[in-house]
Amino acid sequence: MNYKKPKRYFEKSGVVDPDASYHVPLENVTNMDNQDIKTMVDLGRYFSIFAPRQSGKTTFFEDFCSALEKDPAYVALLLSFQTYKNIDKQRFYPLIQKNLYNQLMNRLDAVNCRKLDAIRAYLDFHNLTDHISFSELFEELNHIIEFKKIVIFIDEFDGIPINELENVLTTLRELYQKYKKRADKALYSVGLVGIRNITKLIVGGVSPFNIADQVKLPPFTLKNVSDLYGQFTEETNQPFTEDAVKKVFDETAGQPWLVNRLGTILTVDIKPETTDPITEEDVEKAIKHLLKERNSHFDNLLEKAKLYKETFVKITFNGVDYNPDDEDQSWLEQYGLIKEENDKVVVANAIYKRRFLKAFFQESGATTDTSLKAYFTSDGFLNMEAILSDFEEYIIQIGVNAFYKSQKPYEKTGQFLLTAWLYQFVEGRKGELRYEVPSGLGRMDILLIYHDHKYIIDTKINRSHGDRALNKAIDQLCGKYLLTEQVYEGYVVFFDLKTKVGELCSPQRHAVDGKEILSFNIGIGR
Predict the structure, then answer these.
(1) Tell me: the pLDDT tens digits for 264-289?
(2) Which of 63, 198, 280, 434 has the CA that lies 20 to 30 A from 508?
(3) Is residue 73 packed enough to be buried (19+ CB in 10 Å), middle (13-18) or exposed (0-12)?
(4) What is the rounded average pLDDT of the residues 429-435?
C-alpha cells in the first residue's frame, strides 16, 4: 500500500473538531456512585466536573450536548466564563443573558416548543442584572415551559468574577433545593466545569455548592490512544506497532495533549510520509524531541509547579502518602501535575517528571560532565568521593546566597542542591534517586541506586564546632539506615555555618562496626 496524505491532524489547542482533527470520546466519565453524565442529567442532578487544562473538558461537553439534543425533551445550553474574570457585575450578567437567551430560543424553536411565543415575550422584557434576576428567570420558565428540560453546562467556571462567585453558587443551590422533588422543573440539571473542584469551595464559611456530585474527567485509556492513532493509520496507511502505542500510553499516562502532540511529532518529524511502521524506538525519539520543546503547555504547568516546588520535588523522588486535605497536593493535583496511585501521590506521567524536574535542577546550576572517568570506579560503580568533592566545588562557585535567601530551613536548601547534583548521574533512567525515604527505623535523607548498588547520604546543618553533631549523624546513619538497608558504606554531608564558604575541608573516613562512613564538611558561612 502507498502512503496517502492525511485528511486530518492531531489537535493540540482548543476544542476538537472531528471533521478536522482525530478524535476519540472519553470513557468512564462517572461520579462517585459510578453514574455516567447521561444518568446524572436524567436524574436532574447538579454536578461539578473538574480536570486540568488541555485535557478535553470542552470537547467532552460539546460532544455530550450534541448527543443530548437527539432527545427533543432536552434543551442543552453551553456557556463559558473563560473571559469574564476581570469584568464587573454590570457587564457580567448582560453577557450571560445574550448567550443564554440566543441558545435557549434557537433550541426551543428547533424542537417546536408550543410555548415559544410566550417565552419570547417574557425574555423580551426580563433582563439579567444580578443573581436575583437570574433566579427569577428560571422561576418563571418553570411556569411557562411544559415537558422541556433545560440543562446548562458552564465551561471554565473558574473564570467567574470573584465578587459573583458566592451569589451564583448560592442561587443554583437554592434552585436545586426548591425544585428537587419536581420532575417538571425548567432548570433540570447543571454542570459546572473547571480545573477546580467547585464542591470543595468554601465561601463565607460554608460550601454553597455542596449539593453537587463530583466528577473527575479521566485521561485517555490505552484503547483511546490506539483508536486515535488508528484513525491516522486508516487515512495514511502508516501503522503504529502495538509496542509503540503502549509506549506512548505508558509515558503520557493518557494525558490527551501529550498523546496528540506525540502523534504529530511521530508523523511529521520522526517518520513522515511513509508506510514504514512507527515503532517503540521512534516513540523514544519523539519524547526526546518533546522534552526539548518550548510550548505553552509546559510553560503554564511549570509556572504552577514552581508555586509548590519543594512538594513537587519530594513527590518526584519519594513515595509520599496521598492526602486529599494537603493543600499543596490538592493544588498540584488540580493542575494535573500529580495523581493518586496505590495510596501514594506520584507525578502524573513520566514526561512531566522528566521535564519539570530537569527544569528545577537546571535553575540550581548544578551541572557537570558526568562522563568523566573520575566519577566511576574501575568496576563500574560511582566514585562518591569524587562526586561529593566536586559538589563542594560547586557550592563554592554559586556562593551561599541560596542558603540565606530561602525561606526554607538551611538543611533543605543543601539537600535540594545535592539532590540536583546527584540527579545528573541517574538521569535518563540510569538509576534511581529518592530523598526522605522511609526506612525501617526512620527516613533516609537521600538514597541513590546505581547498577543495583545503594548509596545512602545523610545531610545535616552544623551550627557549632565540635564532633558531637558529626558523631550523632554517623551513629544514626549506621544504626538506622545502613543496618536496615544492609549496606556497609554511607556518606554524611555537613553544611557548616561556622566554616566560611571557600574553605575546603578534606573528607574524613570513619569505621564503625564494620561499616565505612565518608563525611564532608562544606562551608556555607559568610
Answers:
(1) 999 999 999 999 999 999 999 999 99
(2) 434
(3) exposed
(4) 81
The contacts of residue 296 (CB under 8 Å, 6+ apart) are none
Identify whether the C-beta of residue 171 lies closer than 8 Å to the C-beta of residue 135: yes
In 10 A of CB 54, how many CB atoms? 22
Q: Rounded CA gap, 61 and 217, in Å?
A: 11
Q: How many CB atoms lie within 10 A of CB 19?
A: 8
Q: Alpha carbon 97 to chain centroid distance?
A: 34
332-344 burial by CB neighbour count: b if 16+ within 10 A, else e? bbbbbbbbeeeee
pLDDT at 499 over 90: no
468 or 518: which carries more pLDDT confidence?
518
**Structure-block grid coordinates of residue 464:** 557549632
Residue with cell 554524611: 492
Q: Contact, 265 vs 290, CB < 8 A?
A: yes
Q: What per-residue string of b and e applies to 218-239 under the rule 16 or more CB within 10 Å gives b?
A: bbbeeebbbbbbbbbbeebebb
pTM listed for this prediction: 0.79
Helix (H), strand (E), coil (C) string for 458-483: EEEEECCCCCHHHHHHHHHHHHHHHH
pLDDT tens for 39-93 read 999 999 988 887 787 888 888 888 888 899 899 989 999 999 989 989 999 999 9
Q: Are 366 and 394 in contact (CB under 8 A)?
A: yes
- How far is the C-alpha of 37 from the C-alpha of 68, rounded, in Å? 11
Asked whether 482 and 454 are in contact (CB, 8 A), the reply is: no
Give dist(CA 260, CA 410) in Å, integer.
42
Condensed to tens digits (0 to 9), the pLDDT of residues 332-386 reads 998 899 999 999 999 999 999 889 888 887 777 778 888 888 999 998 899 999 9
Give the SS3 label for residue 406.
coil
Distinct helix (H) and strand (E) counts, the chain: 19, 14
Q: Nearest 5 degrees, angle CA 180-CA 171-CA 81?
A: 115
3-state secondary structure of 110: helix
19 within 8 A of 46, measured Cβ to Cβ: no
Angle at 161 between CA 155 and CA 164, to 5 degrees: 100
> In 3D, which of 2, 195, 183, 188 has the Cα closest to residue 82?
195
- Which residues, in sequence order, are CB contacts of 44 under 8 Å at separation 6+? 149, 180, 183, 185, 188, 189
What secondary structure letter does DSSP report for 181? Answer: T
In angstroms, what CA-CA distances link 199 with 53, 103, 132, 210?
18, 27, 22, 5
Distance CA 366, CA 393 (A): 11
Contact at 8 Å (CB) between 375 and 365? no
The answer to whether 101 touches 123, Cβ cutoff 8 Å, is: yes
DSSP code for 30: B
Alpha-carbon gap, residue 458 to 515, rounded angstroms: 15
**Residue 213 phi/psi, 5° resolution?**
-75, 155
Residue 331 C-alpha cell reads as: 493544588
